[in-house]
Amino acid sequence: MNEFIPELIGGTLIGLAASLLWLGIGRISGMTGVLSSLFLLREKQRYWALWFLAGLVLAYPLYLALGYSAAIVVTNNTLLLGSAGLLVGFGTYIGNGCTSGHGVCGMGRLSLRSAVATVTFMVAGVATVAVMNLAGGIL
Question: Would you tell me how many other CB atoms lie within 10 Å of the CB of residue 37?
Fold first, then answer.
Protein backbone atom coordinates (compact mmCIF):
# COMPACT_ATOMS: atom_id res chain seq x y z
CA MET A 1 0.00 0.00 0.00
CA ASN A 2 2.87 2.41 0.76
CA GLU A 3 4.00 2.43 -2.87
CA PHE A 4 0.71 4.08 -3.86
CA ILE A 5 0.92 6.96 -1.37
CA PRO A 6 2.92 9.33 -3.65
CA GLU A 7 0.45 8.70 -6.48
CA LEU A 8 -2.51 9.36 -4.20
CA ILE A 9 -0.92 12.56 -2.93
CA GLY A 10 -0.10 13.66 -6.49
CA GLY A 11 -3.61 12.96 -7.74
CA THR A 12 -5.09 14.80 -4.77
CA LEU A 13 -2.87 17.83 -5.41
CA ILE A 14 -3.82 17.87 -9.10
CA GLY A 15 -7.50 17.72 -8.18
CA LEU A 16 -7.11 20.48 -5.58
CA ALA A 17 -5.21 22.72 -8.00
CA ALA A 18 -7.82 22.20 -10.72
CA SER A 19 -10.63 22.88 -8.23
CA LEU A 20 -8.98 26.02 -6.85
CA LEU A 21 -8.39 27.42 -10.34
CA TRP A 22 -11.98 26.68 -11.36
CA LEU A 23 -13.57 27.97 -8.16
CA GLY A 24 -11.16 30.89 -7.79
CA ILE A 25 -11.16 32.44 -11.26
CA GLY A 26 -13.37 30.18 -13.36
CA ARG A 27 -10.54 28.78 -15.51
CA ILE A 28 -10.01 25.17 -16.54
CA SER A 29 -6.51 23.95 -15.75
CA GLY A 30 -5.80 22.31 -19.09
CA MET A 31 -2.31 23.01 -20.39
CA THR A 32 -3.68 24.18 -23.74
CA GLY A 33 -5.53 27.00 -22.00
CA VAL A 34 -2.60 27.79 -19.74
CA LEU A 35 -0.14 28.07 -22.63
CA SER A 36 -2.52 30.06 -24.81
CA SER A 37 -3.09 32.47 -21.91
CA LEU A 38 0.65 33.15 -21.78
CA PHE A 39 0.32 34.80 -25.20
CA LEU A 40 -2.32 37.17 -23.84
CA LEU A 41 -0.43 38.56 -20.85
CA ARG A 42 -1.30 42.12 -21.85
CA GLU A 43 -4.65 41.33 -20.22
CA LYS A 44 -4.16 41.44 -16.44
CA GLN A 45 -6.58 38.58 -15.82
CA ARG A 46 -4.17 36.25 -17.67
CA TYR A 47 -1.31 36.53 -15.16
CA TRP A 48 -2.60 33.43 -13.39
CA ALA A 49 -1.04 31.42 -16.23
CA LEU A 50 2.47 32.52 -15.21
CA TRP A 51 1.92 31.28 -11.66
CA PHE A 52 0.40 28.03 -12.90
CA LEU A 53 3.33 27.40 -15.23
CA ALA A 54 5.84 28.33 -12.49
CA GLY A 55 4.22 25.74 -10.23
CA LEU A 56 4.59 23.09 -12.91
CA VAL A 57 8.23 23.94 -13.56
CA LEU A 58 9.15 24.09 -9.86
CA ALA A 59 7.27 20.95 -8.76
CA TYR A 60 9.89 18.44 -9.93
CA PRO A 61 12.92 20.22 -8.39
CA LEU A 62 10.93 20.56 -5.15
CA TYR A 63 10.09 16.86 -5.29
CA LEU A 64 13.80 16.06 -5.64
CA ALA A 65 14.74 18.53 -2.88
CA LEU A 66 12.39 16.71 -0.51
CA GLY A 67 14.47 13.56 -1.02
CA TYR A 68 12.29 11.72 -3.50
CA SER A 69 13.47 10.38 -6.83
CA ALA A 70 11.78 9.62 -10.11
CA ALA A 71 13.32 8.01 -13.14
CA ILE A 72 12.47 9.96 -16.24
CA VAL A 73 13.56 8.32 -19.46
CA VAL A 74 13.22 10.22 -22.71
CA THR A 75 14.50 9.10 -26.06
CA ASN A 76 17.11 11.16 -27.85
CA ASN A 77 15.65 10.28 -31.25
CA THR A 78 14.85 13.74 -32.59
CA LEU A 79 12.65 12.40 -35.41
CA LEU A 80 10.52 10.50 -32.91
CA LEU A 81 10.31 13.48 -30.53
CA GLY A 82 9.44 15.89 -33.35
CA SER A 83 6.79 13.55 -34.76
CA ALA A 84 5.31 13.01 -31.31
CA GLY A 85 5.18 16.74 -30.66
CA LEU A 86 3.41 17.41 -33.97
CA LEU A 87 0.91 14.62 -33.37
CA VAL A 88 0.18 15.84 -29.83
CA GLY A 89 -0.24 19.41 -31.05
CA PHE A 90 -2.53 18.35 -33.90
CA GLY A 91 -4.56 16.08 -31.61
CA THR A 92 -4.92 18.85 -29.06
CA TYR A 93 -6.15 21.19 -31.77
CA ILE A 94 -8.74 18.82 -33.26
CA GLY A 95 -9.76 17.51 -29.82
CA ASN A 96 -10.31 21.05 -28.56
CA GLY A 97 -8.13 20.42 -25.52
CA CYS A 98 -5.51 18.23 -23.96
CA THR A 99 -5.39 15.35 -21.50
CA SER A 100 -5.31 17.60 -18.47
CA GLY A 101 -8.23 19.73 -19.64
CA HIS A 102 -10.44 16.83 -20.70
CA GLY A 103 -9.20 14.14 -18.31
CA VAL A 104 -9.01 16.11 -15.09
CA CYS A 105 -11.41 19.00 -15.53
CA GLY A 106 -13.86 17.76 -18.16
CA MET A 107 -14.35 14.39 -16.48
CA GLY A 108 -14.84 16.18 -13.16
CA ARG A 109 -17.66 18.20 -14.77
CA LEU A 110 -19.16 15.00 -16.26
CA SER A 111 -18.68 16.29 -19.81
CA LEU A 112 -19.59 13.69 -22.44
CA ARG A 113 -17.17 15.26 -24.92
CA SER A 114 -14.37 15.00 -22.36
CA ALA A 115 -15.27 11.39 -21.59
CA VAL A 116 -14.97 10.50 -25.29
CA ALA A 117 -11.69 12.43 -25.55
CA THR A 118 -10.26 10.75 -22.45
CA VAL A 119 -11.14 7.27 -23.68
CA THR A 120 -9.53 8.17 -27.01
CA PHE A 121 -6.36 9.34 -25.20
CA MET A 122 -6.21 6.12 -23.21
CA VAL A 123 -6.69 3.88 -26.25
CA ALA A 124 -4.06 5.83 -28.19
CA GLY A 125 -1.66 5.57 -25.24
CA VAL A 126 -2.12 1.80 -24.97
CA ALA A 127 -1.64 1.44 -28.73
CA THR A 128 1.51 3.56 -28.63
CA VAL A 129 3.03 1.49 -25.83
CA ALA A 130 2.17 -1.71 -27.71
CA VAL A 131 3.82 -0.43 -30.90
CA MET A 132 6.90 0.75 -28.99
CA ASN A 133 7.20 -2.61 -27.23
CA LEU A 134 6.84 -4.46 -30.53
CA ALA A 135 9.51 -2.23 -32.07
CA GLY A 136 11.82 -3.48 -29.34
CA GLY A 137 13.59 -0.21 -28.71
CA ILE A 138 14.36 0.45 -32.39
CA LEU A 139 12.61 3.79 -32.13
Answer: 19
pLDDT tens readout for residues 50-109: 888 888 889 889 988 999 887 777 778 899 889 988 988 888 888 888 887 888 888 888
- Alpha-carbon radius of gyration of the chain: 17
Confidence band for 128, pLDDT divided at 50, 70 and 90: confident
Instruction: Indicate whether this model's pTM tops 0.85.
Output: no
124 φ/ψ angles, rounded to the nearest 5 degrees:
-65, -40
Asked if residue 29 lies in contact with residue 104, where contact means CB atoms within 8 angstroms, the answer is yes
- Are 41 and 50 contacting, i.e. CB atoms less than 8 angstroms apart? yes
